């Protein structure tokens, strides 16, 4: 298998584009694709400060590395919730990029409790609790440190699996919030996903070529997650219909099914406890804190 551009031995074949690339030209393709995605959705520009949420996994590590390589102003944010031990990994990514790394102890908000312990106390799914806490802390740090946008490493496989699940369950509000960029609104900082046009395979190969350190451990709470089942179905479809994932994702945007978030913005108010934006009187994060405190108080009684 030869590279389409130079006839050297290819390191990756991209059936969805009917092409193959050597290391040099795959890097070129990958970085141009990220830049095109950023421009297509007017995500951010090089005068803005970007806070990249990193976990130690390949996606967030690549997101930080490629944005730095493309000339954007970045810092990394690692939120330690006690669910993984990736601190040393994210420090290596910080060294690779030469950029600042912020580390936040997420357990400080819940008296040292882990996500799993909080989940058991409030009787809610662990993934739901983890996501809620991470989103709140990411936004809080970005706002307090004057960042213009929060960047996450969501890839095409992530997005189409979430999209399929939301469509199957007619979760319209979730679909609207799944847009590749969500604009800022007061204390709610802009969020962007510059890797949404790239697959897990492409990101993995890019990480290897550029010798990035990353964890290969799967999240301990992802077992039996519906998104993994949706990914499996979509991977099978991709084998027989190369490019179906990207078409599915792009066509949804053309149909405006992501929708406008103007109505949602108009309904936002300040949380009575922390002051951050919420659709109710108290935000989900503060409600969770109250639930945990109440439950712990009852246990002591």
TrEMBL record:
**Binding residues annotated for Zn(2+) 2, in chain numbering:** 271, 274, 283, 286
Q: Does Aminoacyl-tRNA synthetase show up as a keyword for this record?
A: no
Q: Is Cytoplasm there in the keyword field? A: no
InterPro entries xrefs: Ncs6/Tuc1/Ctu1, Rossmann-like_a/b/a_fold, ThiI_AANH, tRNA_thiolation_TtcA_Ctu1, TtuA-like_LIM_N
Keyword vocabulary terms for this entry: 4Fe-4S, ATP-binding, Iron, Iron-sulfur, Magnesium, Metal-binding, Nucleotide-binding, Transferase, Zinc
Q: What cellular component terms from Gene Ontology apply here?
A: cytosolic tRNA wobble base thiouridylase complex
Residues annotated as binding ATP are 53-55, 59, 79, 153, 158
Q: What are the GO BP annotations of this UniProt entry?
A: tRNA wobble position uridine thiolation
A Gene Ontology MF term for this entry? CCA tRNA nucleotidyltransferase activity
Domain Thil AANH residues, every copy: 47-167
Instruction: Enumerate the Gene3D superfamilies for this protein.
Output: HUPs
The cofactors it requires, by name, are:
Mg(2+); [4Fe-4S] cluster
Output this protein's name: Thiamine biosynthesis protein
Q: What taxonomic lineage is listed for the species of origin? A: Bacteria, Thermotogati, Thermotogota, Thermotogae, Thermotogales
